[in-house]
Amino acid sequence: MHKLFKSFQRLIILILLFFMGILITISTYELVVILVNEIIKPVPETGLILGTSGMVYIFGFFFNVLIAFELFETIELYLGDGIFHGEIMLMIGIVAVSRKLIVLDFTKQEPLFIIALGLLVGFLSIGYYFMKKITIKKHDSKISCTKSEK
């Protein structure tokens, strides 16, 4: 029964990887189209090719592609070793919230919402720090065990 479950799990992960690959390909294509359209549009009187709003829009799309790619790699890692990598998920969370902060129009947001996003970034960063610290500690203890065996 366990072997059947593992085979089913592997099939689902492969399907997720396939669709995530399609999503990344489409998103990258759309990013290129948006970038080209922004560049070839007539230059306004200001002389700026993109302008601030165009840059924010493109960066937001760029971060979407980056987040999708990180999720793809996380799924691929899980498929390879069967271990959930929490620090990678926290890193993806930090990138996703950072993307939100970059494209956010602060003039239209409630102060409490902005404070909550700041706290979210802070707590995700603290969680990432401790996950990384635990991972390094485990890695160091494995190395010291291996050295003492010699």
Q: What does this protein look like?
A:
The protein is mostly helical and 150 residues long. It has two domains: 1-84; 105-150. It is 85% helix and 0% strand. The chain contains four helices and no strands. Helix 1 packs antiparallel against helix 2 (51-81) and helix 3 (86-103) packs antiparallel against helix 4. The chain is extended and about 65 Å long. The mean pLDDT is 82. It is found in: Cell membrane. This is Phosphate-starvation-inducible PsiE family protein. It comes from Plebeiibacterium sediminum. It is a multi-pass membrane protein. InterPro entries: P_starv_induced_PsiE-like.
Gist of the model:
The chain has 150 residues and is an all-alpha fold.
Highlighted features:
mainly alpha, 150 residues, 4 helices, 2 domains, P_starv_induced_PsiE-like
Number of helices: 4
Helical content band: over 70%
Beta-strand portion reads: under 5%
- Order of helical and strand elements: HHHH
How many beta-strand runs?
0
Low-confidence stretches: none
Main β sheet profile: none
Our count of domains comes out at 2
Mean pLDDT: 82
Radius of gyration: 21 Å
Inertia-based shape = extended
Amino-to-carboxy terminus distance: 40 Å
Structural class: mainly alpha
Keywords: Cell membrane, Membrane, Transmembrane, Transmembrane helix
Transmembrane segments: 12-36, 48-72, 84-106, 112-131
Membrane topology: Multi-pass membrane protein
Main location: membrane
